[in-house]
């Protein structure tokens, strides 16, 4: 049963003079004592520029401060506020209500991540797999030991990986991935794209160890190129491209 | 998989509505693969009936000569064509062919790997499968 409330004569971050309003449905679930999630509904005013995160924060401020949501930068940089918005994984701070073209907006916790409470999910497993692929340059020498003060790269060499360095670890790609939906052991598009980021870096010497790590039954071969990860990435990382290029190394098309 | 993991499960994996034609192709690829596997098993069973002699073989062939049999065979033709054409597209993609080149992304961040070449490949697979099915139906029912 959904609980319905509306913003009364109180201060909202969006001026109440706004004639437009939406129904915001928020999934509520506490795994410690709830058997299943329930939706609470709130009527929230919005302007052209109001984001979903701002609407949720309005709800927290005026109706129910116990709604659990993780957020920080509010500008698609920290990767904290990923959630399912009308069924698709998006950053709440990067999604304007006016762009959704819907009078009802449903927000749920990201799929394929364990729920802490309400809209907040656990990132431990994603960070574990990210750490597993060794997300740092591997070399025998360092800048301090070398005569050169830095490891120089040509613009062309930088282009090979810079796109994949934009990853903010928001987890949207893992949430959209159809393999992640069924395979708990799959490395996931986030970690695989980051493996490519370092394998393609001309300064890195850890290619063989990284390729060995992902060349396993729940590794890169579980990606079937559905491409959903790339469609939801808020930073243009295109994990699907990175994974296919990475697979090229294992298949011998690239060296 | 436990409830705590909050996985979408097979329902989420098989939902083709949220991520465009690429996810439709992903679902059709799985369905056609399972369908062809089922046909392969049934085909082995069917052909093994020759061990029962001429009578047994003829009895089984009659089953495929019914209206239902013709429709099933036409679906198998469609699945075979789609799985082949889309499979070639996916295999090329897996080798890094046609997935674009890494570059600094510009807003609104259209993913290069989801480019028009792959979309054309998917639509071609669907159209060719439909034509093959229609041809199969015309041949089977036109006897």
From TrEMBL, chain A:
Tell me which cofactor or cofactors this protein depends on.
[4Fe-4S] cluster; [3Fe-4S] cluster; [2Fe-2S] cluster
> What molecular functions are annotated in GO for this chain?
2 iron, 2 sulfur cluster binding; 3 iron, 4 sulfur cluster binding; 4 iron, 4 sulfur cluster binding; electron transfer activity; metal ion binding; succinate dehydrogenase (quinone) activity
Q: Which domain of life is it from?
A: Archaea
2Fe-2S ferredoxin-type domain mapped to chain residues: 20-110
Question: Is Lipid metabolism among the key words of this record?
Answer: no
Q: Does the keyword Lyase apply?
A: no
Instruction: Return the Pfam families for the record.
Output: Fer2_3 (PF13085), Fer4_8 (PF13183)
Family statement: Belongs to the succinate dehydrogenase/fumarate reductase iron-sulfur protein family.
Q: From the Swiss-Prot or TrEMBL record, give the protein name.
A: succinate dehydrogenase
TrEMBL record, chain B:
Q: Which GO terms describe its cellular component?
A: membrane
- What's the domain of life for this entry? Archaea
The coiled-coil segments of this chain are none
Q: Which InterPro entries match?
A: SQR/QFR_C/D
Keywords linked to the UniProt accession: Membrane, Transmembrane, Transmembrane helix
Q: Does the keyword Transmembrane helix apply?
A: yes
Spell out where the chain crosses the membrane.
24-45, 71-92, 120-141
**UniProt protein name:** Succinate dehydrogenase
Organism from which the protein derives:
Marine Group I thaumarchaeote
